[in-house]
Design brief:
The complex is a heterodimer of chains A (89) and B (569).
Chain A lengths: L2 E10 L4 H11 L4 E8 L5 E10 L1 H13 L3 E6 L4 H7 L1
Antiparallel strand pairs in A: 1-3, 1-4, 2-3
Chain B lengths: L1 E3 H11 L4 E4 L6 H7 L5 E4 L3 H15 L3 E5 L3 H5 L1 H9 L4 E7 L15 H5 L5 E5 L5 H13 L6 E6 H5 L1 E3 L22 H13 L3 E5 L1 H5 L3 H11 L3 E3 L14 E4 L6 H9 L2 E5 L5 H4 L10 E6 L13 E4 L2 H11 L6 H15 L14 H11 L5 E4 L3 H9 L8 E3 L9 H11 L5 E6 H6 L4 H7 L4 E6 L4 H10 L14 H7 L3 E5 L5 H10 L4 E6 L32
Parallel strand pairs in B: 2-3, 2-4, 4-5, 5-7, 6-7, 9-10, 9-12, 10-11, 12-13, 13-14, 15-16, 15-17, 17-18, 18-20, 19-20
Antiparallel strand pairs in B: 1-8
Helix pairs in contact in B: 1-2, 1-7, 3-5, 3-18, 9-14, 11-14, 12-15, 16-17
Classes of the chains: A alpha+beta (89), B alpha/beta (569).
Chain lengths: 89, 569
Amino acid sequence: MSQLHTFVLYVEDKPGVLDRIASLFRRRAFNIEALSVTRTDHTGISRVTVEVRTDDAGARRLEANIYKLINVIQVKDVTLHSPQVAAAK
Amino acid sequence: MKLTGAQIVWEVLTREGVDVVFGYPGGAIMPVYDAMLGYKIHHVLVRHEQGAAHMADGYARASGKVGVAMATSGPGATNLVTGIATAMLDSSPVVFITGQVPSTVLGSDAFQETDITGVTLPITKHNYLVTKVEEIATTLREAFFIARSGRPGPVLVDITKDAQQATTDFEWPEDAKPVKLPGYRPERRVLASELEQAIELLNQAERPLALVGNGIVQSQASKELLTFVEKINLPVACTLLGLGGFPATHPLSLGMMGMHGEAWVNTAIQEADVLIALGMRFDDRVTGNLKTYAVNAKKIHVEIDPAEINKNVKVEVALVGDVKPVLQSLIDGASPRPRTSWMNRITELRGDSATRDIQSVKSDGRLLAAHLMHDLWKLTEGRALVVTDVGQHQMWEAQYYKHDAPRSLITSGGLGTMGFALPAAIGARFARPADEIWVIVGDGGFQMTACELSTCAQEGLKLHVAVVNNGYLGMVRQWQEFFYDSRYAATPMLSPDFVKLAEAHGLNGLRVERREDIAAAVAKARENGGTTVIDFRVEQEDSVYPMVPSGADLKDMIRRPLRSNGGNE
């Protein structure tokens, strides 16, 4: 089932890293719905948050491919899954 | 020690064990070329940078070491692109070094400026733009590490001209620690619980099958594979790039799977109850229609790249790691079983296909490409290193040349790059100076990079080039015959006289038009000094069978017509 997935990435703060991430989403045929890049407390490390609408299989595939980018130190799919949201209410 | 950036390039290459570089000079890389004269590394001048890329790739595939190609900025760099993408799709470890315009004019559309790191971003494992001389050594070292570790792949290092010209202190720590990158952890270990699940599935299997891919070759795990399948009686099917990873003449070998796999191989896959995929990625040319692919089988996927797991085919057990140690653990855990009825079933499937085998077709004065492949296999006793191009000849070779040793077949699988064979073979020659090397190439693909014959001549290389000449772009013609009502749009092809073409390069040329003349031509090629091009005039409108049409179910293959058995269509 397709839903909005949120990925949080910790990446090396180097020229071109955002391009590598955006290019990955494009060439694997995913559309970015929201994107933010911020500094972190750690010098040289930025945080990137990306939102993409896809199903669980697509999200797993994306996460695995983002992980492969050499400049990405950590990636996590932090999506709140609908059943959990329902249970919390 | 104060060195220029250009010298540092060669210092690092020397320390990485590089003995040959394939390249083409130009403005933005001239400092590196000038510095080259002070070093022992051999440089091969190619005729087009695409050739350099394929040569470095061929060298890597033949040796298991990292290949190196070099080019200038702009057109030099963009000419590498097809070769980089080829290396990427087949996970070949190649380091590409390109010159770039000086950092002071970067981004100004300077003469011969191309954003080559931008261009190659999606077709490299990683790439770098280096603008400071101090960063050349560490960057190149990282590039070699990334190229050869984990799932191997191409890495491009683009170095601005001013960084090549500047000087800095160069020190190479003799006890250099392994490269550590914060976001790159290629080594992976399989969990014991996952191993247990895999072993349990294998132990319970009645009709198991191993699917062997390029990973077995890359990981040098052929010995472990042999021990494993012999221990538990596991039949083996190979992908195109897996051929040679398991001996084709072994009783447990079924041959190649997929679009042009023999009928018994694909039928066995569809009937299997457990599939263990070893270093392969369920490419669409292997699976056909995913909805009907091996639906009866539970699947175990041993694969070093986690992004390949559940990409095309959903699997029950994923063992993410280097296939060699994983196989070692599986050998220890899995129990032997005879599986007689499954073995009998496979023998029965083979028998049915054998009745349609092209080897039983009479040639009647014609030269059939499949016969040529069979005869080349016999005449070379299966021991040649064969480098194929892309198309019909590639599939016939895969079907009829039985490869028993890893790295005895080099071919462009994933990208399907026409023009790959000749330059890749030139690269392979430098990795394997003593082996007999056969280039098998179609008349179309040969003409895409035939300029590299000149490189063969200049380097004094001995290669045997078999041009499988049918006067058509044969595989496209076959698709037109099958799926486009035989409307031959742009597939009939006029070629130059290949014998004269060879002679114009100072090489040897021969022509063969009948099967009976193959042996004499092979003997002559072996006798000749230097490269020999043999123009094999094969049957013009022949097709590769069986064939699973693109996206079709594996069972819906187009079989070889029985009528051709008489040899008098």
